[in-house]
Hints:
The structure is a single chain. This protein is α+β, with helices and mostly antiparallel strands. It contains 17 helices and 23 strands. The protein has helices at residues 6-23, 46-58, 80-94, 110-113, 124-127, 138-159, 182-195, 218-243, 268-276, 292-296, 350-362, 427-439, 456-485, 487-509, 516-545, 550-582, 585-617; strands at 30-38, 65-69, 72-76, 98-106, 121-122, 129-136, 164-169, 175-179, 199-206, 209-216, 249-253, 257-263, 280-285, 304-309, 314-318, 323-324, 328-335, 342-348, 368-379, 397-407, 418-421, 446-454, 513-514. The strands form 6 sheets. The chain has a 6-stranded mixed β-sheet. Helix 6 (138-159) crosses helix 8 and helix 15 packs parallel to helix 17 (585-617).
Amino acid sequence: MNRYPxxxxxxxxxxxxxxxxxxxxxxxxxxxxxxxxGLGSFDTDQATLQQVERALSEQGITPTRATLDVSGxxxxxxxTETQLNAKDIIQSELKDNYTVALSLLPSTPNWLANIGGxxxxxxxxxxxxxxxxxxxxxxxxxKNAEERYVSDLRTVLxxxxxxxxTIRRGPQGGIHIKFRDxxxxxxxxxxxxxxxxxxxxxxxxxxxxxxxxxxxxxxAVDELKSFALQQNMTSLRNRVDxxxxxxxxxxxxxxxxxxxxxxxxxxxxxxxEILGRTxxxxxxxxxxEHDLQSALRGSVPAGSALYRTRDGGEILLKKRLIYSGHNIxxxxxxxxxxxxxxIVHITLDSRGAEINQRVTGENVGKRMAVxxxxxxxxxxxxxxxxxxxxxxxxxxxxxxxxEEVITAPVxxxxxxxxxxxxxxxxxxxxxxxxxxxxxxxxxAPIEIIEERTVGPSLGRDNIDQGFRSVLIGFVxxxxxxxxxxxxxxxxxxxxxxxxxxxxxxxxxxxxxxxTLPGVAGIVLTVGMAVDANVLIFExxxxxxxxxxxxxxxxxxxxxxxxxxxxxxxxxxxxxxIVLFSIGSGPVKGFAVTLSIGIVTSMFTAxxxxxxxxxxxxxxxxxxxxAI
Length: 627
């Protein structure tokens, strides 16, 4: 009685030994580091690593450790000041062919990292970082869609040979199509209904001419809102990946807001600039058929508009959009081989490449402009320079659309899928523009309405307080168990320690993120693990009072308590799964650690303690139990 077969001890050892091993990386902490990743066709290899180490060595800087893996090069340094200096040196050495990002890197030994050992991720509230709450401008998404429809309508009517006078977006939204006569309007209505079914059409007569007012159907507006939110989340995730942030949080909140959390980010200003920008490109032809000076005096021809250039001048462009940033699938910063100036290499999707090939082939010898477009939200000020407030006391924001011509070169030959953009002011601007285009254009402008920065010191305080809460709870439980259950209490405390180690090990293996609510889940698990042991020990005491022998009492106590323990933990596990399924970020963190803790506590409280009790009392003649 009370003897385990060998295979059960082997099973327990197979769980415990790897558990101890994979929990170890969490004891080593983190080092200030720099991550390097290649852009476009540039890859990080051993030669790149040697180049970086040589450049640092010339400036008297030696990293504590340098590693090369599939994600790029990772360099660790002894302090933050050395890290910042190293980043500047590396950026200067590698130019615009690589991204160089500040980061906190785990200082796990190589032997442990080689077998897959890595610490669990710490959430924003523990590690420090930045939290953004962003609101999607739905009205801006509708406006952008209407502007695209203006271009589509021109193409559709032109190909159908329907004569129209003007197509423009109305001052209050909607699209106004002006026709020559009733016959052309009727033809246009038929074509638009067939080709662009998402538009709702209404006939109007104005200025003695027939019009069609086109608006997006309600179902199309709902679909557009949903698409804008999902597309923006995708673009933000891509931008976060470019920043090199481990375990970021990008999630929807409500029907028009997005939460972005970046744990461990040190350059918060850079993160805010990259995430909040809505930059994209528009390609348009230069209007060389009309006189620029006449346009500057106010005679801007229909179908054209004046745009500002980077040198402060103005240029006349055709309004018709050839293609935009939505057709760009890749972008990489670089330098022109002849002039040495910063450039961005652009790769288009199949539709963009087809349009680019057709338009440039038809307009060789003419000029084509690259227009940089950005939506910005600025605070509105009164005549005294004070912010203007609305009825709810909120600061009034004014949205501005900045359109600037980066370059307008002559088309010397037919272009295809790839081309390059010149005329940029600096290498940093080229890198930022390439990052934004590579990550994907935002489907709608977004505005950062809330920003919170959690400093590393606050994160450290949270870690210390969380660790202290677990330690205090554990010590109090330890004292109680030792006094009340004696040797059995020692066994329960050993199982409790093992339970905590296994929770940390599983979190590390899954590369899960530990947050403050997750720490609360661990504290709750400690109580539940002890509760299971109390049930077993009280059942053993009851059997002894009923006159059973010590060995029989141990055997019956574990057998009869198992059903109660399993039912209690199983129902709690169901609740944790439900919390994870429908809860938000903090609730999910609590549910994850609680679920893991339930499984590990079942293992340690039943198998683990029984194995120790069997080793202590099994196979012996025992007159009395120390319980």
